Amino acid sequence: PTTLLWFRRDLRLHDHPALLAARDAAGPEGDVVPVFVFDDRLYGPSGEPRRRFLLDCLTALDADLDGALVLRSGDPAEVLPGLAWEVAASSVHVSADTGPYGRRRDDAVEQALGDVPLVRTGSPYLVTPGRVTTRTGTPFQVFSPFARAWREHGWRAPAGSPDGVRWRTGVRSDAPPPAPDLGDVVLPPAGEQAALAAWAQFRDERLSGYDEGRNTPGTNGTSRLSPYLKYGCLHPRTLVADLAGEPTEAVRRYTDELAWRDFYADVLWHRPESAREYLKPELQGMGYDSGPDAEALVRAWETGRTGFPIVDAGMRQLLGEAYVHNRVRMIVASFLVKDLHQEWTRGARYFMQHLVDGDLASNQHGWQWVAGTGTDASPYYRVFNPITQGKKFDPDGAYVKRWVPELRDLDPKHVHEPWTAPGGIPAGYPEPVVDHAHERQVSLDRYARVRAG
Ligand code: FAD
Fold first, then answer.
1. Is 65 helix (H, G, I), strand (E, B) or coil?
2. Pick the CATH number of 124-155+192-270 from 3.90.1150.10, 1.25.40.80, 3.90.280.10, 3.40.50.620
3. Which atom of ligand 1 is nearest to the CA of 369?
4. Helices 48-64 and 192-205, interaxial angle, to 10°?
5. Which residues of 402-425 are buried (b: 16+ CB within 10 A; e: fewer)?
6. How far apart are CA 195 and CA 236, in angstroms?
7. Rounded distance, CA 173 to CA 78, Å?
8. Which of 4, 233, 318, 394 has its CA 20 to 30 A from that of 218?
């Protein structure tokens, strides 16, 4: 028999349970048709960096498949049944998609396939969303107890080697959409081999310092694997298997970050509406700013011209690398919501437009966490101070100087407060667009009001 392997967020050949399921269903004499479908409802709104990275990952995957990858464009509920009929496929294999759109789409594809089964094997997560629950079977609302139960649940060993697959060649492809020109934006190299190389380098050279390094944006302290995990160029199972037997603090911490990724996917699985709606609905009535002045402030934020160096560095990193360090994501998000009084959904949208690792679960819930509307257990309203955060996490100003050339000549002790420099704010760099202490109070007052009903 012939089977179809429909690639989505699993653009790799190793540690790929659905690939092995497609091979085994095809049997020793059968072959497997590997296909990717450009679906306008997902691909269109992706933002240029992600579209470009995805196209590059597909090129790498096709090379790893010796040119066998079939590209098709259109509604998967029409494309897959058509292709299954064309190649006489007896089953279609996928890694489960647990996001709101993916679930609806897969149900529609399953129906449209009729007698040809859609077989879901594995997911992009260590533990498939929905599997870890409290003792009474309800979903976890906060991270720490989830992470404990998640570790107790454990995960499978990596899937075996993809040897023995007979990839069918010569099946017609549609032309891929044109690759966006990103100008000066620098993306990481795409594909499974690049992902594995990036992992090996991090594991060997930087993992031991991760506990510290993860909080210093001026050093290359994190793994930078997020775009690869997003598109499944590698699976997190591969990483934790590689770390087995190394219970160091750094390894524990790194595994915890992978648990955050699983946690947010779990939250989205249980509450798909949380991609847009507040997890804490009582905060729905927070007042936000609008009008021309508010819009000008948002533009200053978007372009990295707020006059707060760590915020500007972060927003310029977003435009320059389609990536922002995690600590700085929290700082810039807090600034938009709590200093500029904009709704978190607006910042989340902007991030999704520009991030190469933009991921609905991690991004929307990361924003909700910072906005205080999400899965945060903290009983108080957290407002990041961009100046003290900058001094604490970028003490020598290396991160700011990298992204804000106007401040390169400043002594480190003035970098996060350029208005204290002996010569004043360097030419070309803006004055702070707001008074942080004042805006913080405005935010706290609005919070108190909405809490009081
Ligand atoms: P590392 O520190 O090396 O961590 C390893 C992996 O763990 C990451 O690749 C990621 O998959 C996962 N991880 C780490 N931290 C988190 C976290 N807080 N939440 C969920 N997963 C995590 N991450 C995304 O992948 N896509 C997003 O769109 C995204 N948007 C975010 C928006 C905001 C406002 C915030 C505060 C965080 C967001 N994150 C997002 C989480 C985090 O910032 C990135 O995963 C991380 O910076 C990626 O860099 P890294 O691979 O070097 O991380």
1. coil
2. 1.25.40.80
3. 36
4. 100
5. bbbebbeebeeebbbbbeebeeeb
6. 11
7. 15
8. 233
Q: What is the ipTM of this complex?
A: 0.99
Check residue 336 and report its DSSP letter: I
Beta bridge pairs of residue 250: none
Tell me if 202 CB under 6 Å of ligand 1: no
- The residue count for the chain: 453
Ligand 1 centroid distance, CA of 326 (Å): 6
How far apart are alpha carbons 54 and 14 in whole angstroms?
18
The ligand 1 atom nearest the CA atom of 223: 3
| pLDDT at 206 > cutoff 90 | yes
Output the furthest CA–CA distance in the chain (Å, rounded): 77
Q: Is the pLDDT of residue 208 over 70?
A: yes
Of the pLDDT bands very low, low, confident and very high (cuts 50, 70, 90), residue 95 is very high
CB 343 within 8 A of CB 288: yes
- Per-residue CA distances from 334 to 14, 142, 147 (Å): 39, 20, 25
User: How many CA atoms are closer than 13 Å to the CA of 179, on its beta-carbon side?
Assistant: 11
Q: How confident is the model at residue 175 (pLDDT cuts 50, 70, 90)?
A: very high
Pick the CATH number of 2-123 from 3.40.50.620, 3.40.630.30, 3.30.830.10, 3.40.50.720: 3.40.50.620
The residue with tokens 């390094």 is 213
